From TrEMBL:
Domain of life: Eukaryota
Keyword Disulfide bond belongs to the record: yes
Species name: Bugula neritina
Keywords: Disulfide bond
Protein name: Thyroglobulin type-1 domain-containing protein
Thyroglobulin type-1 domain ranges (all copies): 47-113
One Pfam family named in its UniProt record: Thyroglobulin_1
Keyword presence, tRNA processing: no
Amino acid sequence: MTCQCRLYYDVQVQVHNMTCKCRCYCVDVHGKLIDGYSHGVSETDDRITCQCARDKSAYFKLGIIGRLFHCTEHGDYENVQCHGSVCYCADRKTGKQIDGTGIHISAKSKLDC
């Protein structure tokens, strides 16, 4: 599973009781929470993979710099990615370039993904 559901409690002052809500968080391959990537259970579906959040976390743990990861708030890849001076339309699950879409970073705004 690409995200974990953890319960947290939201105190509703008006009715003086506690309601249980659930949020999903992206986790790494070891099940450790990746900060900054979460979503409500109602948003959970097969399209959310957390792969960008995982790839970014693993990359930075290596201590390497230079690569940028453009992730959604849910942890998936944004539809535009850049590597070096080339930007391209990307598969939102894998981050891989869609064939024929690579352009120079200076023309990034012209990409229609």
